[in-house]
Amino acid sequence: NIKDPTWNQKPVVSREFVVKDVSAEIDKFTLETHGFQYVKHQTKVSKAEFADDERVKAVLYPEVIDLVKKLTGASYVYCYDHQTRGPVKPNANKEIPTENPVHFVHCDQSYDGAKIIALSRIPDKSFAEKVVQGRFAIMNVWRPVKTIYKDPFACADATSVVDETDLAPMPIQADERVEEAWAVGPNENHRWYFKYAQQPDEVLIFKNFDSHGPVRRIVHSAFIDPEHAQGYDRESIEMRCIVSYDQTPPKEDA
Prior knowledge:
Layout: E1 19-21, E2 36-40, H1 53-72, E3 76-85, E4 89-91, E5 94-96, E6 106-107, H2 111-121, H3 125-133, E7 136-144, E8 153-156, H4 163-166, E9 167-174, E10 177-184, E11 192-194, E12 202-210, E13 220-222, E14 236-244
Helix pairs in contact: 2-3
């Protein structure tokens, strides 16, 4: 039972699931019906520039903010972080390993954890308080740097995951504060999906949290596709956004 052990004593178990390719019916999956959505989107950031944090912040952040606003109708989007995953990330005269794909089913923020993120990351703290009092969401925008075969990214249909039985809060130490995610228990009723051979212009947007939406969150994970387990390493970049549907800051900064 995912609810029983304390967060740091929960066993990690492996399970085999059928993960269905969405390619034949990709338009069926939306943020409001399933919690995730694939959209076509070009970026001015070149493949070689994804390792350049400043270039990503200067170019990709505004692009993603505009994309999320247009897709959701949000009044305010703040891109607060990004994560590059792949074999290595060049930096000056040395190579720093980036994060590997996470083969662990989770949701980045619990319902309480989402408020912690919004209140701590939005620069204007008085405005942040207004955001969390209205309808707000936390969404990730996930993009391949090159075509994905190995360790593809899977999302579970939000309607197949039950809060009361499948999710448990998982505290995470983040610098000076404790944040909170969802740990997920295995359930044969979970319905899993991915995009086979996902291209760099096939962007996945998914909800970690929505305060008032018909779909409030999804759980997700990288998974091992036996046909491509020995392929080239996955390279991807994920942008993390706070989204408000009813608040606009006094001085627009997103």
